[in-house]
C-alpha cells in the first residue's frame, strides 16, 4: 500500500470510529442520526471533507454519482446542522496524532499551503472585503486565507 492510500485509509478509519460514538459530536445526542437515512454521520463527515467549492447541488450530484435519489440540499443542510464543530476539531487532532512520527523528507520538514477564499456576510460598506465584479452585478464580501500546515505533525 502506498503512503497516500495509507493516509486516506487512516482518515476514513477515524471517521468510522467516530461514527460509533457520534452522540459526542451532535447537538441533540438522543435523537440526531438515530434513524437510518441516506445521510449517516459518517457519510456527512466524508462528504464535507470532499467538497470542492462548487454549488451544493453540483457537489451532491457528483458525490452520489448523479443518482436520481440524490438527497436534497435541504436534507444535507439539516443533517450538517446536527454536527458540532468539535467533531471536525476532534477528527483533525486524531488524524494529526496518528502521523506524529517527526519524520522528515530528505532531512526537511514538509509544509503545505492552502489558499482559500472565504465568503462572509454581505456588507457593501466594508471596502476592504467587498467585491463587485461588474458595475451592475451583485457584489459580495470575501476574505482570503493562506493556511500553512506542517505535513509531519
Number of strands: 3
Spatial separation of the terminal alpha carbons: 21 Å
Structural Rg:
19 Å
Q: Strand order within the widest sheet?
A: 1-3-2
Poorly predicted runs are: none
Structural class: alpha+beta
- The average pLDDT value, as a whole number, equals 86
Query: What portion of the residues fall into strands of 2 or more residues?
Result: 15-25%
Tell me the major beta sheet.
Answer: 3 strands, antiparallel
SSE pattern: HHHHHEEE
Question: What labels describe this entry?
Answer:
153 residues; alpha+beta; 3-stranded antiparallel β-sheet; 5 helices
Explain what the structure shows.
Helix 1 (3-20) runs antiparallel to helix 2 and helix 1 (3-20) crosses helix 5 (85-97). The protein has five helices and three strands; from the N terminus they run αααααβββ. It is 37% helix and 15% strand. The protein has a three-stranded antiparallel beta sheet with strand order 1-3-2, with no helix packed on it. Strand 2 and strand 3 (140-150) form a beta hairpin. The radius of gyration is 19 Å and the shape is globular. With 153 residues, it is α+β, with helices and mostly antiparallel strands. It has helices at 3-20, 41-50, 56-63, 73-80, 85-97; strands spanning 111-120, 130-131, 140-150.
Amino acid at each position: 500500500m502506498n503512503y497516500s492510500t495509507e493516509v486516506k485509509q487512516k482518515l476514513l478509519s477515524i471517521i468510522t470510529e467516530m461514527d460509533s460514538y457520534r452522540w459526542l459530536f451532535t447537538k441533540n445526542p438522543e435523537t440526531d442520526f438515530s434513524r437510518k437515512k441516506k445521510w449517516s454521520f459518517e457519510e456527512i463527515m466524508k462528504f464535507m471533507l470532499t467538497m470542492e467549492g462548487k454549488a451544493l447541488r453540483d457537489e451532491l450530484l457528483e458525490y452520489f454519482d448523479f443518482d436520481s435519489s440524490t438527497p436534497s440540499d435541504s436534507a444535507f443542510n439539516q443533517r450538517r446542522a446536527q454536527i458540532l464543530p468539535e467533531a471536525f476539531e476532534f477528527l483533525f487532532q486524531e488524524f494529526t496524532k496518528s502521523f506524529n512520527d517527526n519524520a522528515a523528507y530528505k532531512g526537511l520538514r514538509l509544509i503545505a499551503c492552502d489558499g482559500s477564499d472565504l465568503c462572509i456576510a454581505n456588507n457593501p460598506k466594508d471596502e476592504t472585503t467587498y467585491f463587485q465584479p461588474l458595475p451592475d452585478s451583485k457584489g459580495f464580501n470575501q476574505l482570503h486565507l493562506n493556511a500553512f500546515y506542517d505535513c509531519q505533525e
